[in-house]
Amino acid sequence: MPHRPTPLIPARLEQRDSTPYSATYGDVFHTRAGALAQAEHVFLRGNDLPVRWQGQQRFCIVETGFGLGHNFLATWAAWRDDPRRCERLHFVSAEKHPFPADDLAQAHHDAGVPKALSDALCERWPLLVPGFHRIELEGGRVVLSLLFGDAAETLPELVAQADAIYLDGFAPDRNPDMWSPPVFAALAAAARPGCTLATWSVSAAVRHGLAEAGFTTEKRPGFGGKRDMLTGQRDGVAPAADAAVRHALIIGAGLAGCGLAERLALRGWQVDLVDAADAPAQGASGNIAGAFRPVPSVEDKPLSRLTRAGFSFALGHFARLADAGHPIRRASCGALHLARDERQASKQREAIAALGLPPEFVRWVSADEAATLCGQPCAYGGWWFPQGGWVQPGSLCTASLAATGARLSSHYGRNVARIRHADGLWQALDDEGRIIASAPVLILANAHDARRLGGFARLPLRAARGQVSHLAATAVASLQSVVCGQGYVTPAVDGLIPTGASFLVDDLAMELREAEHAENLDKLQRMLPGYAHGISPSGLAGRVGLRPVTLDKLPVAGEAGRPGLHLLNGYGARGLVWGSLCAELLASQLHGEPLPLERDLVAMLSPLRFDLANSAPA
After folding, report:
1. Of 241, 422, 444, 556, which alpha carbon lies 20 to 30 A from 347's?
2. Residue 270: inside a domain, yes or no?
3. What is the CATH number of the domain that holds 473?
4. Which residues pair with 594 in a beta bridge?
5. Which residues contact 286 (CB under 8 A, 6 or more apart)?
6. The CATH number of the domain where 146 resides is what?
7. What is the per-residue pLDDT across 255-296, written as a single tens digit (0 to 9) for each?
8. In terms of pTM, does the model score above 0.85?
């Protein structure tokens, strides 16, 4: 049966007796005694925090019911004030009905939340669309992962090792699904041995459900006139902190390799980056601009979910790089994805209705409105992504590497002839057998050549030739937005308008071809009738790149069947929307942190979804 997504229904800020109130559940969000004080007493003290995170490299808290975020904000404030705080604090919270950022800001003001904390959270608040969302604060040392959707559906998809659990939500008699056996079982699955929990509820059903899930509970004095609250613990002792050397060798300095280098350096890893070219982003990542937008579908297929998640994460990631002094070249000019005919236009409208996505993310527009948005006549209507636009891939690579600082060692102009594993290290060897670099962890981010280098005879990773045509900005009318559909075209960048691109699998030739220029112009004509009228394909400038693609058209991220060997690859023509998230996914796996994607999507991206049984590299 096809998957039918459940549209996300945002919450509305209402009041009852000067206290935030939910008409949907007929209950208040916190007691009148104060949201922050309640969070401090019930959840922080109930989990013996901050003592338990002190001196730890990382600490993970999982919460049911983000609500107005007071529990998170109180925890963040306590972390800030603790001189012995953990290096990285992960806070994971499920929320079925998230608030808009403006409502959060108002509620925080009313509750006396420090303005600096509220502003930082609300400024980075994600688009209200289903799925997992990740917000980085304090330079990446505090990470908030939001699971937008029903907790009974999102928590089982969480891959994490929780040290503490905040069991919050509306009263069990008002919202029984939040206190159900499936939720308790999912929490137990995400809890490491010795994980603690705390909740204000002491109902017999809650105590029984937690006991069935493997938690031992006890009552403690409650808060705000409530006699009791509940604390608990999962049996066992947490394993000792991992003392493994944080050092990775990455082969390939395109979007995949550069993005991963930045994500690992943020976590304190040393990175050796090797590429045969004399500088980063010399392959397909060297195009002057690429379209940046997701791809919805009626059934919310994996491609749709992954591009939506990647789009949301990348928006935050681009902003974080800019805030750190490493801006990328991009324009948030909006992106149109035009239908190719009336039948597809109907499907696009159906997808918008089925997904229930907010107009800030996507809406369907007629051909006339599309023409107004992009500034040129359009053949058909289509999807409009107001936060889409174009990105220069090379500038993203440059910004990512600049952010790594002293943790990066670059080895450009070094061709890797083969790899080998010796004395616990993966080694990259040149044509003469000399070691270029070595590390305990090796990531092949070198496009289609990963198949040869890793000895993956069965890996369906191939190269697709893509030729982009460059039109002189003086030869055509200006565009106000990116236009996609049968091809793509962006507004002018440095006096050129890129359009394309061809897609020829297993064609490794790098010369420009007039036939492919003609193909690109034909695609452009079908999207924007008359736009490039009179332009001849003969003598057009352009650029050719080889994009790595997989058989199922999804990227590859994860361990490749041999200890310490990983793949980050297969972005195809969607590196800009997938690259930042896939790098975060692999970095989270390598560092033992909560994953930024649902469990089923992680499995769909794993290299092990393919049959990689073959001989190990020599």
Report:
1. 556
2. no
3. 3.30.9.10
4. none
5. 393, 394, 543, 545
6. 3.40.50.150
7. 999 999 999 999 999 999 999 999 999 999 999 999 999 999
8. yes
